[in-house]
Design a protein that fits this description.
- A hairpin with a 5-residue loop joins strand 10 and strand 11.
- The protein contains eight helices and 16 strands.
- It folds into two domains: 117 residues, D-amino Acid Aminotransferase, Chain A, domain 1; 157 residues, Alpha-Beta Barrel (D-amino Acid Aminotransferase, Chain A, domain 2).
- The protein starts with a strand and ends with a helix.
- It has 285 residues and is of the alpha+beta class.
- The chain is globular, with a radius of gyration of 19 Å.
- Helix content is 30%, strand content 28%.
- Bound molecules: 4'-deoxy-4'-aminopyridoxal-5'-phosphate.
Length: 285
């Protein structure tokens, strides 16, 4: 079955789905996006993803191109047409197509809206979770508003590629003070020797992960101790556990950082329990 994408009001085979070379997303990365997990054909935490989308749009001075209800219909319809049972749905909104000029185009320029969906191999992700992943650290060279979920992801691309070349699955980004901000495509967490969960606080220097927010609910429900503060690479090396969170993989235990085993080098109990309980706290729609 060929894949279908939604492009500005039409559902098209992927081979015909295209935007202009003068799309501002293509030329300036002038746009924002969301990735939502699909489970059993339903969207996970759609409401929170759409709320974050609204915030991203507002922060870059764009209006929402259609109502949340209409957007929701498009997301579900794209999932349905692609017959995705377990996977992800991707939504991208850019400032539209206009003659190349850095400043905003005329106010009546329609935004470009693209939605695609694809299945993933759930067994493979479960295996990754059971094995745990390797992480490396690289300098965080991104701009100062990474809380906006912008499509400008070149530093993340380069970090992820460095990880790949070193046999790791994720790169943790490290600020000038030697503190981990987040992963190239995930939020970063550790469990300290005395059993406290630690993750970077929200601000302009991390993406407000939806999975992070739901995991915080699970943390509360499990009665775990939490510190929202930056942690250093040295603290991470010495941690009892480490893990990452993202919509496409939920909670993935980290078993090594820069080649050093974390804890006993196997997925930690807390990460495993958070992963197990996650979907009891998430919303399905
Ligand atoms: N940080 C970055 C830089 C990301 O790209 C992502 C995934 N999009 C996350 C964190 C995790 O966010 P979420 O849980 O909403 O997928």
């Amino acid at each position: 079955m060929s894949r279908i994408a939604y492009v500005n009001g039409r559902y098209l085979p992927l081979s015909d789905a295209a935007v202009s070379i003068e799309d501002r997303g293509y030329q300036f990365a002038d746009g924002v996006y969301e990735v939502c997990e699909v489970r059993g054909g339903l969207l996970v935490d759609e409401r929170r993803h759409l709320a974050r989308l609204d915030r991203s749009l507002r922060e870059i001075g764009m209006a929402r191109p259609m109502s949340a209800a209409a957007l929701s219909v498009v997301l579900h319809e794209t999932v349905r047409r692609n017959r995705v049972h377990d996977g992800i749905v991707y939504l991208q909104i850019t400032r539209g197509v206009a003659r190349r000029d850095f400043a905003f185009p005329p106010a009546d320029t329609p935004p470009s809206v693209v939605v695609s969906a694809r299945g993933n191999d759930r067994a493979r992700i479960e295996q990754l979770a059971a094995d745990g992943i390797a992480v490396i650290t690289v300098p965080d060279i991104r701009w100062q508003r990474v809380d906006i979920k912008s499509v400008a992801l070149l530093p993340n691309v380069l970090a992820k590629q460095t990880a790949r070349e070193q046999g790791a699955r994720e790169a943790w980004l490290v600020d000038a003070q030697g503190r981990v901000t987040e992963g190239a495509s995930s939020n970063a967490w550790i469990v300290s020797r005395d059993g406290k969960l630690i993750t970077h606080p929200l601000g302009h220097d991390v993406l407000p992960g939806i999975t992070r927010a739901v995991v915080l609910d699970v943390v509360k429900a499990q009665g775990l101790e939490l510190e929202e503060r930056a942690f250093t690479v040295q603290e991470a090396y010495a941690a009892r556990e480490a893990f990452v969170t993202s919509a496409s993989q939920i909670v993935l235990p980290v078993v090594s950082i820069d080649g050093r085993p974390i804890g006993n080098g196997a997925p930690g109990l807390i990460a495993t329990a958070l992963r197990r309980d996650y979907h009891r706290h998430a919303e399905l729609s």
